[in-house]
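Thread: Newbie trying to understand structure tokens

Hi all, I'm a second-year student working on a class project, and my supervisor (Dr. K.) asked me to get a predicted structure for one chain before our next meeting. I've only ever worked with sequences, so writing a 3D structure as a token string is new to me. If someone could post the tokens and maybe explain what I'm looking at, I'd be very grateful. Here's the chain:
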Amino acid sequence: MTFFTDYLHLTKRFGIVAASQLPLHYLLALKSPLSPITLLTHLSHEELNPYHRALGRILLLFFSLHSSFYLNFYIQKSLLLKRIRDRDVLLGLLAITSFLTLSTTALARIRHKNYLLFFIVHVTLSIALLPTLYFHVSHLRTYILESAFIYLLLILQRNISQTKVPFSTLTLLPSTSPPLISITIPLTPSLARRTFHPGQHIYLSLPTPLTAPYEKLRLNPFTIANLPHKDKHIRLVLRALSGTTALLSDLASTTPSLSPSQPPTPPRTTSSLLLEGPYGASSHFPALHTYAHVLLVAGGVGATFTLPIYRHLIDLNTTSHSQQITFAWSVKTLADALWGMEYLREGSQLYVTRGRGSRSSAAAQGKEEEEGIELQERAGLIEHDAEGAAAHADDDDEGELERLGIPAHITVNHSRPNFAHIVNDIFATDPPPAKVAVLVCGPSGMGAALRREVGVWVGRGKEVWWHGEEFGW
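---
Reply by user tm_fold:
Sure, no problem. This is what the structure looks like when written as tokens:
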């Protein structure tokens, strides 16, 4: 009898301990910069999300042990057929089924393949789980009420942080397929009162016939590609692949211009939209202008993160040349970088990973493309090539650069970036920089390759501040 008393005590503890952590689990999902965890840790919601997922796995383990131990007890005592009709057991089985479904659809493979499915299941079951557990047993109700309160705060925060904008302008940029889309949003008085830090992102809700009056899901975070207060507008640049970005591509044009030789598609103005944000870790960055050298590395539209930071640092250094800034941008074709060319200064490095005139189908390129900035549309863009040497443009290249309007002071390399050379050139200077900041936005492989090279110098005692921008939830 003592065995079963201890057994049931352990079984109940599994459930109570898991339920007691639900408020923290919901709190880790809060996007607000006023979240207690964000204020304590200076981590933004996308940086806290891995901890949200890790805690979710722990809760799943504890809830699974709780339910399986109870089922085993009922079977051993021949009580299963009797107890399975009782309300507390039925609700418990419903709760563990919901948690298993929620956790299964949150797996990376499913999340990346069908983010909309994950999102709908995640939101629906996160709400449904609370009343289910509330009526399951009475001693969990304090934790459930705390979780419900935090969830209501999450909904309230998202609605408070959104702003209605009267219109926006969508333009399909000359590019290879899939096309790039530029979205220009006017800086309304309400937006002008907000603080925008370079590298932050926003969420959009666009009116469409299928989701009128607003597309409420707001799935994708879109990085702000400019300096809103300086430019008097917000600009987004994104790759049209599937889901939300495909919808935006359809809104921009039904006959996109995909070749740099064709004129850009005329801009299309949309009706009102909702903007939520800004969010992002950059609001908690250290003062980057105090670092002796700043290295900014981007892959594809990852430059929407690094380019505003680059512009901001350039503006801060107009009266002083004490800080060195290295800007390296890797793209598939020259056309993919045209949108940001006007802001690049002398010494900027552009890496074109495909030969002149190379074209691929939308499907093939979409399969390879990983922007590292949109939630559900990821694959792979650039791998580290330790052997790749920078081959500068020849006479034919110069004609192409002139035709595309690329400034002569920008160095164009038809190769993949050699991170060993880039990093070594920074640290091998005489005297070496006292402090170096490294920021990268692109495929996970790019970030890992750059981190390895920077890690060599960290191991030699160099002071480096690192930030890799990825949306990996």
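A couple of things are worth pointing out once you decode it. The mean pLDDT is 82. The radius of gyration is 26 Å. Feel free to ask follow-ups in this thread.
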